[in-house]
Amino acid sequence: MEVEDKDDADRYRAPALDKGLDILELLAEQKGGLTRAEITKLLGRNASEMYRMLERLVARQYVVRSAGGDRYSLSLKLYALAHRHPPMNRLISEALPLMQRFAADAEQSCHLAVYDRGNLLVIAQVDGPGTWGISVRLGSRVGLIDTSSGRTLLAFQTTEQRAHMLAEHTKVKGEVTIDHEALESACATIRRAGFSQKDSQQIFGVTDLTFPLVTASGQAIAAMTCPYLKRIDEYVAPSLEQVTQMLRETVQGLSMFAES
């Protein structure tokens, strides 16, 4: 049986495809990208064939060059394609019970968003149990630049991936403009803190709390946000600090799924 399997593998070989997959798998293990010479050496391939293959992968947007043009790293195209595949359904099914528990305990709504073609897509949303609340409609596309979810996703990417996301970005209705230096500073602050807490730039009186759902490599594949509303009547609801800790624990439980 093993001999037959080996024969079948040899019979259906596609050398060009194998080279491309070898490059993608190699780059997937690198945080800072690799030069063409490094890729050629690590794969034990001919320099000219690696050049042609890299040029095609760049042209098809599976691989991006660094600003200096000397290093290659994975783009987010494979990640974007995965959003159209059943694993995204699994993420939603794993997230919803945790989000429902959070909403009940925190008495706040929450939503889960992923990067999709230049902005964010809300893939799961749960309302809080109270009389009043605020929620983002399921399936909505929200801004990458001026939302807590967007900045958190940007903060937990490599420099090359962040540049690629920003290059794909198109403004959504009402999106607030921010210059590159200010955005980089905001991302650095979020990385240091491990999450984002900021006044909403869309709705007055809302404090957006966002935690990234990160993989073992430290990169965010999704962001969970609670648009926190503070009660000012006599009802004693969980505080901002308590809700922040609840959201942190919720996302930590979901991150265990992302690493499995």
Description:
With 260 residues, the chain is of the alpha+beta class. The chain has two domains: 73 residues, Arc Repressor Mutant, subunit A (Orthogonal Bundle); 180 residues, Beta-Lactamase, CATH 3.30.450.40. It is 48% helix and 17% strand. The strands form two sheets. It has a six-stranded antiparallel β-sheet, with helices on both faces. A hairpin with a 5-residue loop joins strand 7 and strand 8. Helix 3 packs across helix 4, helix 6 packs antiparallel against helix 10 and helix 7 crosses helix 9. The chain is elongated and about 75 Å long. It starts with a helix and ends with a helix. The model has no long low-confidence stretch (mean pLDDT 87).
Structural class: alpha+beta
Fourth-level CATH superfamily of the largest domain = GAF domain
What Rg, in angstroms, do the CA atoms define? 21 Å
- Cα end-to-end separation: 31 Å
Keywords:
single chain, about 260 residues, alpha+beta, Arc Repressor Mutant, subunit A, Beta-Lactamase, 2 domains, 6-stranded antiparallel β-sheet, two-stranded antiparallel sheet, about 15% strand
In terms of topology, how is this protein built?
Layout: H1 2-11, H2 15-28, H3 36-43, H4 47-59, E1 63-65, E2 72-74, H5 77-82, H6 86-106, E3 110-116, E4 119-126, E5 141-142, H7 148-155, H8 159-168, H9 180-193, E6 196-199, E7 207-214, E8 220-228, H10 240-259
Antiparallel strand pairs: 1-2, 3-4, 3-8, 4-5, 6-7, 7-8
